[in-house]
């Protein structure tokens, strides 16, 4: 007889109920998508609510299912695909239409924000090691527009602000992921890594291998697709399928040689987009965009379901203050300072800093950390992710349209005053 434990009826029922719920809600959202956009209700918002309902109905059985090795591997694959999608979704060239501002955001403001979050963690999250706090900082800093995607289409927001936000959202999670893995290895008590130097000795070769794999896979597939397209060997469907296979191939090959699969998928996306010559790259990206969207929907549902179990024992006031700081000053200050010297005005710099929702990347990073850490560290990470993402959905969902309206009204008033001056 097999030693495998028989499936538990309660867990099977919870999984089936979850499947029915997420499918029904997704179908309902699809039917009413345009109407919900007018109501400023995005798919992640609706899916999170469904997850919360299922979490209440199934107690903590869904949360127990997610805290497994299988869930961790699924989250890794989801993150690899999302990193690839983000890297290929940047418009207007490699760094968009505002390359100077984009570089400032990614390589000045982003590191300063992580450092600031780490300092707030030392103050407000006592009892956690600096490695765990660095993990948390990497979770709360990257932005993602899935909860409030309408921001990037709101014409009241200046085009250059939307462009630099699009570039940041495309690249920041890929830039942060190596640091996140480094911190997670250092914070994991089950590994034999005891010092930052030992963690770097493991992380640097992994990153180097990943970069080589990402460059190779991205370049090879892009050049092969270009040659095949010239000869008429590809169909519309096959052009889309290449973009689905690319991140999985880069991720898998990188892991096979003990590389960092996240870095590999991210680099693959950048190289593929840069080298691919397509008549309509946006159309080619539709399938992988949809795949990424569906995977993200699953993560948002899981997030809503686990939020119930995580919050049921209460939240320390220090954690609440930390999350509020992470959503506001941790980002706004470094971004506003980092853009000094660019052609962004002070109101525009504040707008870039204020429009920074947290979403799928924070959830996936959080799930990975939740499955690796133990005890109080696991609890702290879970609370931070839930409060930060839910807080962002509420805060940015409400304030982003108001900020856009205020900015547009202010600019309109300034122009009226300028034209009303004598001699104009």
Brief digest:
The protein is mostly helical and about 425 residues long. It has 18 helices and no strands.
Overview of this structure, please?
The protein is mainly α. The protein has one domain (80-303, 312-410): Na+/H+ antiporter like fold. Helices cover 77% and strands 0% of the residues. It is built from 18 helices and no strands. The chain has helices spanning 9-31, 33-38, 43-57, 61-66, 69-88, 99-124, 130-140, 159-187, 196-230, 236-256, 261-275, 281-284, 286-311, 317-327, 329-338, 346-354, 360-372, 375-420. Helix 5 (69-88) packs across helix 13 and helix 6 packs antiparallel against helix 14. The longest helix has 46 residues, at 375-420. The termini are far apart.
User: In the CATH scheme, what's the topology name?
Assistant: Na+/H+ antiporter like fold
How would you characterize the largest beta sheet? none
Per CATH, the architecture is Up-down Bundle
The geometry reads as globular
Structural class: mainly alpha
The figure for the number of domains is 1
Q: How much is the average pLDDT?
A: 85
In what range is the share of β-strand residues? under 5%
Number of beta strands: 0
Order of H and E elements:
HHHHHHHHHHHHHHHHHH
Indicate the low-confidence ranges by residue numbers: 1-5
CATH class (first level) name: Mainly Alpha
Note the topology:
Layout: H1 9-31, H2 33-38, H3 43-57, H4 61-66, H5 69-88, H6 99-124, H7 130-140, H8 159-187, H9 196-230, H10 236-256, H11 261-275, H12 281-284, H13 286-311, H14 317-327, H15 329-338, H16 346-354, H17 360-372, H18 375-420
Helix pairs in contact: 1-3, 3-13, 5-8, 5-10, 5-11, 5-13, 5-17, 6-7, 6-8, 6-14, 6-15, 7-8, 7-17, 7-18, 8-9, 8-11, 8-16, 8-17, 9-10, 9-11, 10-11, 10-13, 13-18, 14-15, 14-18, 15-16, 16-18, 17-18
Main location: membrane
GO cellular component, one term: plasma membrane
Subcellular location: Cell membrane
């Amino acid at each position: 007889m097999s030693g495998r434990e028989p499936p538990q009826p309660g867990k099977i029922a919870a999984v089936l109920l979850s499947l029915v719920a997420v499918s029904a809600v997704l179908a309902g959202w699809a039917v009413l998508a345009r109407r919900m956009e007018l109501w400023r209700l995005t798919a992640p918002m609706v899916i999170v609510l469904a997850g919360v309902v299922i979490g209440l109905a199934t107690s903590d059985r869904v949360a127990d299912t997610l805290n497994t090795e299988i869930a961790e591997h699924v989250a890794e694959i989801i993150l690899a695909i999302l990193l690839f999608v983000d890297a290929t979704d940047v418009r207007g060239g490699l760094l968009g239409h505002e390359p100077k501002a984009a570089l400032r955001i990614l390589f000045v403001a982003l590191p300063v924000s992580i450092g600031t979050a780490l300092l707030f963690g030392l103050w407000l999250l006592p009892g956690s090691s600096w490695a765990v706090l660095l993990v948390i900082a990497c979770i709360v800093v990257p932005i993602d527009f899935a909860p409030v995607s309408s921001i990037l289409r709101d014409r009241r927001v200046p085009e250059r602000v939307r462009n630099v936000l699009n570039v940041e959202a495309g690249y920041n999670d890929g830039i942060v992921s190596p640091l996140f893995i480094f911190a997670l290895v250092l914070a994991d008590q089950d590994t034999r890594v005891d010092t930052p130097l030992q963690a770097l000795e493991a992380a640097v070769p992994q990153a180097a291998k990943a970069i080589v794999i990402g460059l190779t896979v991205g370049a090879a597939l892009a050049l092969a697709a270009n040659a095949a397209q010239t000869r008429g060997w590809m169909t519309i469907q096959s052009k889309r399928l290449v973009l689905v296979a690319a991140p999985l191939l880069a991720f898998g090959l990188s892991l096979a040689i003990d590389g960092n699969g996240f870095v590999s998928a991210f680099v693959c996306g950048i190289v593929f987009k840069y080298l691919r010559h397509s008549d309509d790259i946006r159309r080619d990206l539709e399938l992988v965009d949809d795949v990424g969207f569906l995977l993200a929907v699953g993560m948002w549902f899981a997030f809503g379901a686990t939020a119930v179990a995580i919050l049921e024992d209460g939240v320390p006031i220090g954690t609440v203050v930390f999350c509020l700081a992470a959503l506001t000053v941790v980002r706004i200050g470094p971004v506003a300072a980092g853009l000094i010297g660019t052609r962004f005005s002070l109101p525009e710099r504040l707008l870039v800093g204020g429009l920074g929702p947290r979403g799928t990347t924070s959830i996936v990073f959080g799930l990975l950390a939740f499955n690796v850490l133990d005890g109080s560290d696991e609890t702290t990470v879970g609370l931070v992710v839930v409060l930060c993402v839910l807080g962002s959905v509420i805060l940015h969902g409400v304030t982003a349209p108001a900020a856009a309206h205020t900015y547009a009204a202010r600019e309109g008033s300034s122009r009226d005053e300028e034209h009303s001056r004598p001699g104009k």
